[in-house]
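Hi everyone, sorry if this is the wrong subforum. Our group has a chain we'd like a structural model of before ordering constructs, and none of us has done structure prediction before. Sequence below.
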Amino acid sequence: FDEMDEISATKSIVIFKHSTRCSISRMALKQFEAAFNYPEDKIVWYLLDLLNHRDLSNEIADRYKVTHQSPQILVIQNGKAVFNASHDSIAAEDLKQFT
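Answer:
Right subforum, don't worry. Here is the predicted structure as tokens:
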């Protein structure tokens, strides 16, 4: 997370929290991936598998002061969560403001 926070000083970091057992999460991820079209020099995104890494999700919630949800996206800038959305509110187009 320290490395991500460091990167977030120059690029927006997007974390997509995904449950591989949830059909809603699968649908949200599929739509997000299809619509995500941002250059890596502006936005870097990470996919977090919640079933295998719930501990990391808990740390994200604590570190960035955002209640855990699934599916969920967070945008990190300058080491702080500046945006989050979950479930059917997840839209790749919302990320335009962070490029």
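For your construct planning: The chain has a mean pLDDT of 94. The first helix runs from residue 2 to 7.
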